[in-house]
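Propose amino acids for all 282 sites.
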C-alpha cells in the first residue's frame, strides 16, 4: 500500500520527464527532416559547378544548412567511383543513370538536368563538318560509317552498340587524352559524344576541336546522385529537395545560368537541330 502511495506521489514527476523526452525527440526529428546541417565532400572539378549549386541550393530551399568540401580536380572518374564503392572520403557522385550503378549504390531517384544528359552533341575535328551535313536519320548515320570515341565502360557504349553504331573505347584518363585522339585524326575516331550542357564549357578548354552544327542524338537518360554507404540517409532528403526545387522552376533557371549557350541560336542552338532518337538496351 505504501508502494502504491509512493508511485502516485511521484507520477507527476515521471509524467513531466516523459513529456520532456518526447518533446526533445520530436524536435530532434523535426530538425533532421527540416533543418539538418549536412556536410558533404564531393568532386571539385571545374565542370562540376552546376552540380555543386544544385546540391547546395536545393537543400537550402528545404531549410537545411549545407557545407561542401571539394576534392582536387585531378581525381579522375575511375578513382572517384572506386572511392565511392569503398565509402572513402567522398559523399556522393553524379553519373549517368545505369543498371550497373543502380545495383552498386543507393541512389537519389530524381533527375538532375531535366533530361539534358540524354541530348548528345558531338565534338568533331575541324574541317570535317561536311561528313555530317547530309545526315538526317539514324539510317543515314549508320551508312556514314562514322566512328565514335568513348571512355572504357561508359554506359553510352551499350546504347551505341544496341543501335548498331560503331565506336572505340579509351581506357585511363579521358581529359585530355580522348580529345587529343580525336584531334590527331590518326586514331580511327570521327566524333566524341557529349551531353548538350557539357559540350559548351568543354569547348572553351578544347577549342582545337569543333562542335558539330546540325545533329542532336536523343535517348531517355539523366544524371543521378549515387551515395556512399555513410550517406544513404540522405536519399529521402535529397529526393524531396530536388523534386521541389525542380517543380518550382529553380532547376531550369540554374541550367540557363550555367549553360546559356544551349539555347543560343549562335552557339549550340539545341531546339533547331535535327533530332535523331536512339532506343535503349534496358
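Proposal:
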Amino acid at each position: 500500500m505504501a508502494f502504491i502511495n509512493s508511485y502516485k506521489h511521484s507520477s507527476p514527476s515521471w509524467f513531466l520527464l516523459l513529456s520532456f523526452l518526447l518533446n526533445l525527440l520530436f524536435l530532434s526529428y523535426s530538425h533532421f527532416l527540416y533543418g539538418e546541417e549536412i556536410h558533404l565532400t564531393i568532386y571539385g572539378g571545374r565542370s562540376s559547378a552546376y552540380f555543386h549549386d544544385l546540391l547546395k541550393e536545393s537543400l537550402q530551399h528545404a531549410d537545411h544548412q549545407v557545407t561542401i568540401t571539394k576534392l582536387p580536380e585531378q581525381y579522375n572518374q575511375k578513382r572517384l567511383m572506386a572511392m565511392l564503392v569503398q565509402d572513402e572520403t567522398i559523399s556522393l557522385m553524379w553519373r549517368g543513370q545505369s543498371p550497373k550503378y543502380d545495383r552498386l549504390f543507393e541512389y537519389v531517384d530524381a533527375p538532375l538536368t531535366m533530361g539534358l544528359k540524354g541530348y548528345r552533341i558531338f565534338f568533331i575535328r575541324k574541317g570535317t563538318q561536311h561528313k555530317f551535313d547530309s545526315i538526317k536519320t539514324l539510317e543515314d548515320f549508320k551508312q556514314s560509317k562514322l566512328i565514335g570515341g568513348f571512355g572504357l565502360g561508359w554506359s553510352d557504349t551499350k546504347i551505341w552498340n544496341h543501335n548498331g553504331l560503331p565506336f572505340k573505347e579509351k581506357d585511363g584518363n579521358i581529359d585530355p587524352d580522348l580529345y587529343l585522339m580525336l584531334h590527331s585524326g590518326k586514331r580511327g575516331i570521327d566524333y566524341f559524344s557529349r551531353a548538350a550542357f557539357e559540350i559548351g564549357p568543354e569547348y572553351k578548354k578544347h577549342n582545337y576541336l569543333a562542335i558539330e552544327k546540325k545533329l542532336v542524338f536523343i535517348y531517355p537518360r539523366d544524371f543521378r546522385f549515387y551515395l556512399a554507404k555513410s550517406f544513404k540517409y540522405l536519399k529521402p532528403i535529397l529526393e524531396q529537395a530536388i523534386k521541389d526545387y525542380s517543380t518550382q522552376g529553380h532547376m531550369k533557371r540554374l541550367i540557363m545560368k550555367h549553360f546559356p549557350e544551349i539555347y543560343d541560336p549562335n552557339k549550340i542552338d539545341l531546339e533547331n537541330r535535327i533530332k535523331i532518337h536512339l532506343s535503349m538496351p534496358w
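The chain has ten helices and twelve strands. The longest strand covers residues 37-43.
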